[in-house]
Amino acid sequence: MSKKLFIKTYGCQMNVYDSARMADVLAPLGYTPAEGPEDADMVVLNTCHIREKAEEKVFSELGRLKPLKIEREKAGGRMILAVAGCVAQAEGAEILSRAPFVDLVLGPQTYHRLPEMVARVTRAAGAVLDTEFPAEAKFDFLPETTSSKGVSAFLSIQEGCDKFCTFCVVPYTRGAEFSRPAQSVLAEARRLVAAGVRELTLLGQNVNAYHGASPEGGEWGLGRLIRALAEVPDLARIRYMTSHPLDVDEALISAHREVPQLMPFLHLPVQSGSDRVLEAMNRRHRADDFRRLIERFRAARPDIAFSSDFIVGFPGETDEDFEATMALCREVGFAQAFSFKYSPRPGTPAAGFPRQIAEAVQSERLDRLQELLTSQQRAFNEACIGRELPVLFERRGRHEGQLVGRSPYLQGVHVTAPADGLGRIRQVRIQRVDRNSLGGELVS
Ligand code: SAH
Ligand code: SF4
Ligand code: F3S
C-alpha cells in the first residue's frame, strides 16, 4: 500500500544526507515522497540544535503540524509525526513532554531502526523514543542508496566529533568520531556514479579527521581516500566538508596539488582571528597556524579559494579580539563565509563562561563582519568576469534553453546551452555577476 512521506530538513549537510537515507529505509514500507505535510501519512522533522534559533524552529513547526494531525485523525486517518536529528538527540524525552502529540523521537544514530519504530507506533498507542548510540554500526544496516541523486550527491564518510569546542553541541548530539571503512565508501561512490552522479561531496562533522579502515589493512586518511575515489571512472568532481584546521595534513594538501578532480574550493572554519578567543573556544590552534595553512594550500593549488565560519561575541571577546578577526579576514580574503552570533547551548562549557557579550554588541560586530565578508564575496565573483571556468550542469534554468550549473567555487552559473549538456562539464566564459549567481556563455 502506498503511503506518503514528508521530510523537512534543518541544519547541516549531514542532515540532508540523513534525510535521504531515512527516505531509503522507509521506501520498502511503501513510503513515497509527499509534496508537503498536508498529504503526508508520515512527517519527519530532521532537526538541528546548533544555535538557539535552529531549535526554536522545531517547536514552532510542531505547533503548525499539530492541527493537521488532529484533522487527519478526525477523518479516521493517521499521520505519524517523528522528530529526528540533533534536537531529538539533545532533548529526547523533553520533546515528548512539550509536544505529546509526537509519535517518534529518534537520534541521528538510530534511523536505520526506523521501520521497526514505525511498526511499533502503528501497532500500539504511545510514543517511541530511541536516542541511543547503538553498538551496531548504522551504515551496516542501511539499504543501498536508492533515492534519485541528480548530478551532485553527498556521501557521508565520517560522523561525530571528539574535538569538544566549548561552544558546540555536536559532540553531544552526534557522539564520538567514527569513520566508515574505505571499501564501503568506495562502493557507495561507484553506485552513485553508476546512477548518474558526477560530483561527490564527502561529508563529516570533521571530515578531515577521517581515518577509515583501508582495503589493504591499516587506515587511510582523507587524502588517500580522495586519491582512491579519483580512480572511479566518470567521477568528475570531488569535494569535502567540514574540515578542522587541526586535522589538515600533508597528504590532504598534496591531494589538492595532484588530484585534478578535487575542486579548488575549501570550507575551513576558523571561528575567530584572536588567539585568546581561539583558546577559550578550545580550537587548539592559533590564528597564525590558520594563516600558514592557507599559504600551504595556496602554494599547492594557486587557484584555490576559501570559505569559512565565524562566531562573533563569544564570551569574553573584547573589541581588540574582534578586530583580530576582521584583520584575519582582510588578510585571507574569503570567497564566501558564514558568520553567527555566539549562541549559548545548554550543557556546553562556554554557556557557563563569565563575561557573556550583550546582544547589541554581538549584533554590531556581526554587521561589521558580514559587511566585510559580503564585499569580499562580491569582489571574488567580480574577479571571475572574463575568466573561463569549467561548469558542471545540474538542471534546466527558468528560461527557455537555459542550463544552470556550478563552477569549481560552487557559484551557480546560468548559461544558454543545449539540454544534452546536463550532467556534463563545459567551459564557460563568465560575463556577469547576478545577485546570487554568475552568467556566461559556452566557449566553443
Ligand atoms: N565541524 C565544524 C562546524 C560544525 S557547526 C567545525 O569544526 O568547524 C557549524 C558552525 O556553526 C560552526 O563552524 C560555528 O561557526 C557555528 N556554531 C557552532 N556552535 C555555535 C554556537 N553555539 N553559537 C554560534 N555559532 C555556532
Ligand atoms: Fe563542533 Fe568543534 Fe566538533 Fe566542529 S570541531 S563539530 S565546532 S566541537
Ligand atoms: Fe545541526 Fe546537528 Fe548538523 S546540530 S549543524 S544538524 S550536526
Question: Can you describe what's shown?
Answer:
With 444 residues, the protein is of the alpha/beta class. It has helices at 13-26, 52-74, 85-91, 93-98, 114-123, 138-141, 170-173, 182-194, 222-229, 250-258, 275-280, 287-300, 319-332, 359-383; strands at residues 3-9, 31-33, 42-47, 80-84, 104-106, 128-130, 152-156, 158-159, 178-179, 199-203, 211-213, 219-221, 237-241, 265-267, 305-312, 336-341, 388-396, 402-406, 412-416, 425-433, 437-442. The protein has three domains: 3-130, Methylthiotransferase, N-terminal domain (Rossmann fold, 3-Layer(aba) Sandwich), CATH 3.40.50.12160; 138-382, tm_1862 like domain (pyruvate-formate lyase- activating enzyme, Alpha-Beta Horseshoe), CATH 3.80.30; 388-442, OB fold (Dihydrolipoamide Acetyltransferase, E2P). The strands form six sheets. A six-stranded parallel sheet has the order 2-1-3-4-5-6, with helices on both faces. A five-stranded mixed barrel has the order 17-18-19-21-20. A three-stranded parallel sheet has the order 7-10-13, with helices on both faces. A hairpin with a 5-residue loop joins strand 17 and strand 18 (402-406). The chain is globular and about 60 Å long. It starts with a strand and ends with a strand. The mean pLDDT is 95. The structure holds S-adenosyl-L-homocysteine, iron/sulfur cluster and FE3-S4 cluster. Iron/sulfur cluster binds at residues 161, 163-165, 168, 170-171, 205-206, 244.
